Each structure stands twice: as structure tokens, then as C-alpha cells.
Amino acid sequence: MKLYYTPGACSLGAHIALEWSGAEYEAEAVPFSDPRLKEIYPEGNGKVPILDRQNGLPMLSQTPAVLRYIADRFPGANIGSSDSIDVQAEINRWLVFLSADLHPVFHPVFVGERYTSDKSEKAISCVEEAARGMIRKELAVLENHMQGKKYIVGDSATIVDAYVFPMLRWAMVKLPEQLEGTPNLQRLHDSIALDDAVKRVLKDEGLDT
Ligand SMILES: N[C@@H](CCC(=O)N[C@@H](CS)C(=O)NCC(=O)O)C(=O)O
Q1: What separation in Å is there between the alpha carbon of 138 and the centre of ligand 1?
Q2: What whole-number distance in Å separates Cα of residue 1 and Cα of residue 74?
Q3: Can you give the residue range of the structural domain that contains 52?
Q4: Mutate to test the pocket of ligand 1, among 4, 5, 6, 10 (most ligand atoms within 8 A of CB)
């Protein structure tokens, strides 16, 4: 398999999941918004992650689908594949939360100009400020859930822990208070960052821990 990623982007979650899965894979960095992404997989609309499953299978985009595929293809890794529909439901719930609620509220702090037809500095900074409020509101949901827990679901790390990790990193860069008001999320971030496989991935992506 081959993963196309942009360093530090949401694709970091898929990169970590691949490393946790024990699969043999390649990972190629493609810069943010590089037109090559559309050539690699037109249906991916120029975004990462893109997973080339090879063996004649179509490419796969959309992080929840990519993560679910990795977990189910390598069930022995125990990172989100489960025979229990109740465990699956919990993991799917958090995959959707991260994809539909948390990830999108980060977009305006990265590409604020896309969210206003007024391209003035003031308008863009208002978009960013509003987005920071939305980020805090969504992070609070996970902060409450993490009370007394080490992992988002169950007793070991799963694809949803991998998925949230880049977003916790973004919060630490894009919120002036970083994760100070959310100690459970700070703890979650720190424990994922200490994982040896995660350290290998960060190094591979050229990122600091
Ligand atoms: N719904 C997609 C969103 C992917 C996405 O927004 N990726 C960002 C990086 S975090 C991207 O590639 N953005 C490039 C762009 O918007 O031009 C998913 O869940 O994978």
C-alpha cells in the first residue's frame, strides 16, 4: 500500500494507523494543495490522505474510510477492528465526530480567506477568531469524554486516537492557550506523542514531537 500525505495534515492519522497496523507500506509527501494530488486521484478533489491499496483496487480517500479500511484489513493489530457491533458503533461515532464536527472547524484558521468574500486582513482575522470559538466548543466534547480515560475507546489505542492526534497538534499551534484549559486532551496528546511508532512517523514527516 502507499499513502500520499502532507506533513502534519489530517493524513498524519492514517500514517500513524499504518505504522500501528504493522503493514508494509510506502508513504509519499505531497505538499498542501499540490495539483499532483488531483492527478493521483481525481475523486479525492486535491486533498490528503489518499491511500493506494494497490492490487487493482481503487484508490481510497476520506479519512474515516481510510482508517476503517486499515483497522479492518489488519485486525491482528487491534486498532479498531472488532467483532462487537457495540465497540464498532463507538469507534464509528468518534470517526464521524472527528471528521464532521472537529476537523472542519480548523479549516477557517488555516485557510480563512476561503471563508469570506471580503479578503481584507480584518475580515480574515474575524473568520479565524470565530473559528477558534468553534474549535474550543468541539474540543470540550472530547475533553469531557476523556475524563478518567487513557484512550478514546477501550483500553488500547485505536484509529480514533491516531485521527485526533494531528488535530490536537493544530490546537496547540492555533489556539493562544494551546491545550491548557483541556488537561485530558493534553494528556491524550502527550501519551500518543510518546508512542515509539508515532515518533517514527513524525520523524518520517519531518515534524517535531
Ligand atoms: N473529508 C476529507 C478532508 C480531507 C482534507 O480536508 N484534507 C486537507 C488536509 S487536513 C487537505 O488536503 N486540504 C487541501 C485543500 O483543501 O486544498 C477527509 O476526511 O479526508
Answers
A1: 18
A2: 12
A3: 2-79+200-204
A4: 10
